[in-house]
Amino acid sequence: MALHKPYADIPGTTIFDADRSRQGYWLNQFCMSLMKAANRERFKADERAYLDEWPMTEDQKQAVLARDLNRCISLGGNIYFLAKIGATDGKSFQYMAASMTGMTQEEYAAMMLAGGRSPEGNRCAHEQTGEKK
User: Fold this and answer.
1) In a domain, 3, yes or no
2) Distance (Å, whole) CA 112 – CA 8
3) pLDDT tens-digit map of 7-56
């Protein structure tokens, strides 16, 4: 029986909860493996071969190969684990966050320095329509 998740309808937001954790277990374990230099080297030498050692879904593997962090998150990835991919690629967390918003790193930094993203439109869909949940 699925639990009621009132946070499930926040536009553009994926909440990392217990269900998402189970879904992304192997994706996140792969990411954690990148904490070891030998594993980073193996991954960089042949990304697909290294990914195939992990019982991840094909969708998860393709998202990693494409560095599509938003897709990785939708498939159960946790941003703190996914940061290991960026570090392996020599990218900063700021660069990764910018890539997830469709901004350049400079645009993202300027937005954050100006106070961050506006909360307008980032409310639960039922709150925007006045519908009761």
Assistant:
1) no
2) 25
3) 777 777 778 888 888 999 999 999 999 999 999 999 999 999 999 999 99
